[in-house]
Design goal:
Layout lengths: L8 E8 L5 E8 L2 H9 L5 H4 L8 H4 L2
Antiparallel strand pairs: 1-2
Length: 63
């Protein structure tokens, strides 16, 4: 990320290492699509992937 690219989405993943110790790892993304592609393992549109708990897609909120 460059200086002007502030992360807009940050994910925290928690788990256990090989010794059973709790660990956490953070990931920062500069766009919803970058985050969706990382989580989904391929090219995805963040606006068509992320939904609220009520089922409203991000793209619908941005209209």
């Amino acid at each position: 990320m460059g200086i002007d690219d502030e992360p807009i989405l940050i994910f925290q993943r928690k788990g256990a290492d090989a010794k059973g110790q709790m660990t956490s790892e953070g990931f920062a993304f500069t766009s919803p699509s970058a985050a969706a592609s990382f989580v989904g393992g391929g090219t995805l549109s963040g606006n068509a992937t992320w939904k609220t708990n009520e089922g409203i897609f991000l793209g619908q909120l941005l209209i």
